[in-house]
Amino acid sequence: MRTFQCAVAIAFGLSSSLLTSMASAQDSESLKSLRDKSMIKIEYKVPTDKKFEPIYQRLKARAVLERMQAFLAPLRLPQPLNLVTAQCGGQLELPYQPDAPVTICYEYVELIEQAAPAGLGTVGQALVTHDIALVGPFVQFTLRNVARHIIDLLELPVWGNVEDAADNLAAFIMLEVSPQVAQKTIFGTAYFFFKTGQSEKIDLAAIRPSVAQRYFNLLCIAVGSDLVRYSVFLPVDRQAGPVDLPKNRYDFCLQLAAPERSEFNQLKNAFHQLIRDKHVDLALLKQVRTIEWLADD
Amino acid sequence: MKILTNAAIAATAISAVAFASLAVDAVLAQTKPDQSIVKEQAPELKNANVAIRYTEWKYQALYERVKKRAVLEEISEFLSPLKLKQKLIFETTSCGVENAFYSADTNTVHLCYEILDWIENVAAASTDKVKQVPGGSPRGLLPGITRAEAIVGAIGGLAMHETGHAVFDIQQIPRLGREEDAADMVAGFVMLQFGNDVARTMIKGTFNMTYNWHAETPNLNAAILADTHSLALQRGFSILCLAYGKDPETFKDLAQAWLPPARQPSCAREYRQAENAFRKTIMPDVDPVLMKKVQQMKILRPDDSKL
Fold this sequence. Notes:
The complex is a heterodimer. By secondary structure, chain A is mainly alpha-helical. Chain A is built from 13 helices and 5 strands. Chain A has one domain. Chain A has a 3-stranded parallel beta sheet. Chain A has a two-stranded antiparallel ribbon with strand order 4-5. In chain A, strand 4 and strand 5 (126-128) form a beta hairpin. Chain A is globular, with a radius of gyration of 18 Å. Chain B is α/β, with parallel strands linked by helices. Chain B has one domain. Chain B is built from 13 helices and 4 strands. In chain B, strands 1-2-4-3 form a 4-stranded mixed beta sheet. In chain B, a hairpin with a 4-residue loop joins strand 3 and strand 4. In chain B, helix 5 (147-171) crosses helix 7 (196-216), helix 9 (232-246) packs antiparallel against helix 10 and helix 9 packs across helix 11 (267-281). The N and C termini of chain B lie close together (11 Å). Classes of the chains: A mainly alpha, B alpha/beta. Chain A binds chain B through residues 151, 155-162, 164-165, 168-169, 202-207, 209-210, 212-213, 216-217, 220, 240, 242, 244-246, 248-249, 252, 258, 261, 263, 266-267, 269-271, 273-274, and chain B through 104-105, 168, 173-182, 184-186, 220, 222-223, 225-228, 230-231, 233-234, 237-238, 241, 259-260, 262-263, 266, 270, 273-274, 276-277, 279-281.
């Protein structure tokens, strides 16, 4: 079942091969069942700027929000959470407000499209397709902003930067859904972060870390999750390049002598303690896991 | 030298005070500390799960001063309200590098003489007396911060930061944010739980320390951006923001001097975040009666204020 990737990819006007990746009838039923139980409420807001009309139409036509609504159905929240797509007045994203909807700005989607390679691209030694470069950052952006709201909705205890916490939760979910989803979303997000981080002017006073820092944080969690799959980012027995996770960090990411202390495993422990064990419907989670999200194109 | 003695002691004392909120219940303190290294403490503020040791090596003068001032004993007292699940060891030692760190393998917080020496001779020294780093901002005391504040606040901040790591590890506290930022947040939150004088000293000294780290690293490269720690000034701004978020009036002057206006609106929320995390993850293991006692301890001594 091609569900989410298909939806996102098609939303971005991707290849016809992706168009064939529609969900099976069985998965469609599962999706509908999940959506009915989801506490995520969705809306596509009409852009006032005509240049965003195609993005709006594609997202809507491909039911991107509906699929995210189904994917997040296992979350048990004290109140519904609104997830919308909208034009954001030229901003890539809206400043966080606890009571505001989770907003996916058309401007950010446009940036993702602009950053994606026309054909094949690379981030270090990793190959990234056009599709992956679109899907990865879109999923990451959506999940991290949902996570940011959930932190407040559930009054989760967060030690450390809450923006990192949101990124961490998004990365963890991306890595835990399935190896396929993980690889596509991690590589796609890494490509996007690395590319957009190149031109970034770092604001040391901003609560959100720089894109470059977020890039390395993402890689750190990824290699801790699956060393072999993400080993392309480790400069072992070769000269380190700008995309590589430097040794001073990856030693901490891997914690080979005590893997339970790796950043990924610490995050996994926190996720289980604070979210999974208290705020997730495990039966619905099982149902979500039966769906092949972001199936191969 | 005396300056560092008093200041360091006071700083550590302050850090300990901060950790009043983290203390230990004697009932749960089942592991008897090694009497060969543990000093006598006031009975009511004793944490049987905290052990201390002063290691002597090449920093003989620092060793003597720190030991005489009973810095580690005060840390232990300040940790008395926290019901630690395992023994925690504090030691001052020579590490070969300017550092302070927590070893999870041995449950030990290491306060290195080298970092104490760096604080005394770089971060808390006049800029005209410090060798500057080419291309970097001036190292040394920031305007508006006294040498005593720089020493006391920095050492206290370091001790609290490392204690934060220890508490996370020993108490198995979940962290959704990054470990180093989390330890910074614990340190920042705790240093604000005492009187205004203590809090301002700690915040100023800690910010001055982070500014000096920033001044030493003018070029951001991949290793720095990828580091487990946030960038030095990011850390300084976050600590300042916590303080301003808790009490805008008390910290208004510091915020105006150093915290960029764009960050200020989110500070109250950041402080509430730390407060919520503390209440839910650490406070359940704190003895409130002992905590009150620790909070009432006199942290800044007259001699320290004259430094």
